[in-house]
Amino acid sequence: MAQPGTRLVFAPWNDPEQKPLIQFKNVTKKFGDFVAIDNITLDIYRREFFALLGPSGCGKTTLMRMLAGFEAPTSGTILLDGVDIAPVPPNKRPVNMMFQSYALFPHLSVWDNIAFGLRRSDMPKDQIPARVEDMLRLVRLEKFAKRKPHQISGGQRQRVALARSLAKAPKLLLLDEPLGALDKKLRQDTQFELMDIQEKTGTTFVIVTHDQEEAMTVASRVAVMDHGKMVQIDTPDRIYETPNSVYVADFIGDVNIIEGNVIDTVDGKVSIEWAEGQPRLLGTVGEGVAKGSRVHYAIRPEKVAIATQPPADRANVIEGVVHDIAYLGNISTYKVELPGGRMMKAQVANDRRIARRDITWDDKVWLSFTDTAGVVLLG
Amino acid sequence: MNLRRLFLILTPYAWLLLFFLIPFAIVLKIALSDYAISIPPYTPTLDISAGWEGFKEFVSELDAENFAFLATDALYYTAYLSSLKIALISTVLTLVVAYPIAYGMAQASQEWRPTLMMLVILPFWTSFLIRVYSWIGILSNEGFLNQFLLWTGIINEPLAIMNTQNAVYIGIVYSYLPFMILPIYAALEKLDESLIEAAEDLGCSKISAFWLVTFPLSIPGVIAGCFLVFIPALGEFVIPSLLGGSDTLMIGKVLYEEFFSNRDWPVASAVAVVLLLILIVPIVLFQRNEQRQREANQ
Ligand SMILES: Nc1ncnc2c1ncn2[C@@H]1O[C@H](COP(=O)(O)OP(=O)(O)OP(=O)(O)O)[C@@H](O)[C@H]1O
Ligand SMILES: [Mg+2]
Questions:
Q1: Most buried residue among A78, A178, B31, B196 by CB atoms closer than 10 A?
Q2: Chains A–B, number of C-beta pairs less than 8 Å apart
């Protein structure tokens, strides 16, 4: 269908023809009275790299354990390839899980840990060593093959757990914080390796991560969870650019949130009154926003420009005083105090040397942004 | 500070000296003496007032002929061998009975575990001797077991269990069961549930997950339990003499008879010393196992 010259976009969730690999249908999981998963309906497609994001205790691991077969939903059904998987025991599911606690077998060497699943599969015995070697190379642990899990470092253990779950090349891979203990460099390399594996084998990945950057880098879609509910499921860029709630906007990345009342809506534009004596904010109408509603205006710091002179052509201009500057190498974040004590952050790429920077502490500055730069969110 | 350390180090050694090495030296000394009709029933005795000369004479009268005697009379080494056999078989039987119990306890829910543990320890609250005696009431020809089996019609003649080695096995398995259950339970209880899940996730059935993960990880507990049963069972006296009858030859019984029936303290002491030497092997192995486990846990 793709026209010559245009790139085929991977977005099976927009294609009604596509059948999801995994379907959660009104799945609820309770532990006693505690609702860990609250009525989730969710489709995950073949070859997806699906990232679960959310605060600690929101139910990410529980969701995965239901896919792996260690917890049964209290109500609702989970379908794999259109078939209800409730009666299928964990060892018969084409699913492998990397445990958050690693769950390495302490009595077996690194090598035997990785070979464990292969020995239980129908892989011919003489092919197992080659596969294990491949996995060891992938996670760069060739030298540690003979060690026991208690003789290697935490990060190395995490890599063994990753290698062990990858070894069988299952249809569906569940990775519960697979890279948390690795240093940045190794983490990035491993992320690319994972994406590479995914490209080559067509495995579907569901990955839990606390690292948004990681979710943004690897994921085809990101699901943001809160208290057992799915708050938003979308592509990384849409999650970032058009969060559907203050919760998502705040959870992903850095954001300025300004509370105010909608004074007027004209031609898809809203004007928001947010502080006494300040010019109204102009924004684009969001879902359900009407005259008189209480709203939050969310804008990313990098979309806010900072200048020493009032800019002429921006829809929104606010005057303030530089309160703090955080120098992060490639970028600087200016924390600007607005009249009334409110803070607003602006982020600027450092394309000049520090010495030639023209804004400094306590300078009077003008912050400006367009009327499409932020999102207007209800509540 | 240093004094404190010295004290800490010396305490166990002092304990060992007072309650093991000194008694052992006394027993060894008697084993090296000769039988005599006197009080105490052996010679020589050390006369401290005779000084150095007296001590030299005392030492010159000690000899190893009791040990030589043990080697010449078949009774002794058959008794040792038979004890070894009985201790080994009953250790295996105890393991077979104890493992499922320990496994069941470790699987039980958190709130039940203390109760189950209590039930395992409870028999210790009554006298060991009474508990072994009561087995006579169960196992004898007119005992509960035979009466019950006759009543159900499974058998027509009473089973002769009493005064056989089978009765000894039953007695040992019953008496030492807690020593096997507790270390196995301790090993199984600290086993991380997610390891079993990981095994199942990687394609194991529940049974193969047990043999590939649960059992290997419980081996230190199994070894500890086996030693805790084997070591005392080897020298066991009460159970074979109450339940085993004349059929059962065990070194503990021989020892008792030498002391109290024959009043031959020197030979009895020699029997005891040899028994101790035999036991040192498994005791050292046991200590090694414990040590290894402690190191693995660090
Ligand atoms: N077996 C259980 N019994 C009772 N409550 C449980 C059980 N397992 C999980 N929970 C609860 O369910 C909630 C979700 O747990 P879950 O492990 O899925 O969180 P998570 O999102 O993975 O958190 P984290 O990021 O910290 O790993 C938590 O509040 C937890 O206390
Ligand atoms: Mg978790």
A1: A178
A2: 55
Distance A65 CA to ligand 2 centre (A): 10
DSSP A147-195: S-GGGS-HHHHHHHHHHHHHHT--SEEEEESSSTTS-HHHHHHHHHHHH
B39 domain residue, yes or no? no
C-alpha A20/C-alpha A82 separation (Å) is 8
DSSP code for A227: T
Helix/strand/coil for A223: strand
* Own/partner long-range contacts of A267-271 (Cβ < 8 Å, ≥24 apart): A269/A371, A270/A295, A270/A376
Q: Which of B71, B89, B58 lies closest to B173 in space, CA to CA?
A: B89
Q: Report how far residue B187's alpha carbon sits from residue B223's, in angstroms, rounded to the nearest whole number.
A: 11
Question: For residue B34, what are the β-bridge partners?
Answer: B43
CB proximity B199 to A under 8 Å:
yes
How far apart are the C-alpha atoms of B209 and B203, rounded to whole Å?
Answer: 9
Stretch B21-42: mean pLDDT, rounded?
87
ipTM of the complex: 0.84
- Per-residue pLDDT reduced to its tens digit, A206-244: 999 888 888 888 899 999 999 999 999 999 999 999 999
pTM for the model stands at 0.84
B217·A107 Cβ contact <8 A: yes
> Cβ(A318) to ligand 1 under 6 A?
no
| Contact status, residue A44 vs residue A66, Cβ threshold 8 Å | no
Nearest-Cα distance to chain B for A70, in Å, is 7
Name the β-bridge partners of A95: A172
Pocket of ligand 1 contains residue A34 by CB under 6 Å? yes
φ/ψ (deg, to 5) at A224: -100, 125
CB atoms within 10 A of CB B228: 19
Closest approach of chain A CAs to the CA of B202, in angstroms? 5
In this structure, what CATH number is given to the domain that contains residue B160?
A: 1.10.3720.10
Judged by CB atoms closer than 8 Å, whether chains meet at A117 and B296 is answered as: no
Domain count, chain B: 1
Domains defined along chain A, listed by start: 12-94+170-247 (3.40.50.300), 254-378 (2.40.50.100)
Q: Which ligand is nearest to the CA of A176?
A: 2
Q: Which residues surround ligand 2, an ion (CB under 5 A)?
A: A 61, 100
Please tell me the distance between residue A61's alpha carbon and the centre of ligand 2 in angstroms: 4
Taking contacts as CB-CB distances below 8 angstroms, the residues of chain A near B213 are: 105, 107
d(CA A203, CA B216): 33
- Closest partner residue to A99 (CB to CB) among B198, B203, B213 is B198
Domain that holds residue B179: 73-297
Phi–psi pair at A366, nearest 5 degrees: -120, 125
Host H or E run for residue A264: strand A256-266
Residues of A in contact with B198 (CB under 8 A): 97, 99, 103-105
- State the Cα–Cα distance between residues A293 and A262, nearest whole angstrom: 5
Q: Which of A67, A70, A148, A177 to mutate to test the interface with B (most CBs of B within 10 A)?
A: A70
Residue A9's alpha-carbon distances to A2, A5, A12, A49, A242, in angstroms, are: 9, 12, 9, 14, 20
Q: Is the pLDDT of residue A351 over 90?
A: no
Q: Is A221 near ligand 1, meaning CB less than 6 Å away?
A: no
Please name the amino acid found at residue B215: F
Is the omega angle on the peptide bond into residue B114 within 30 degrees of 0, that is, cis? no
**What ligand 1 atom has the least distance to the C-alpha of A228?**
14
Span B245-264, pLDDT tens digits: 887 889 998 999 888 888 88
